[in-house]
Amino acid sequence: MSDSNTARVTISEVPLKADQPSVHEEAAARLRAQPSFTADAWQVITLSSRLDAFNHTELVQAIHEALAEGAKRIALDLTPNKFFSLNAIQFCTSIARDLAYDGGYLALIGCAERTRRHFDIYGSTKQVRFVRSMDELAMDSGASINIRPRAISPEAL
Question: pLDDT tier at 18 (50, 70, 90 boundaries)?
Answer without folding.
Answer: very low
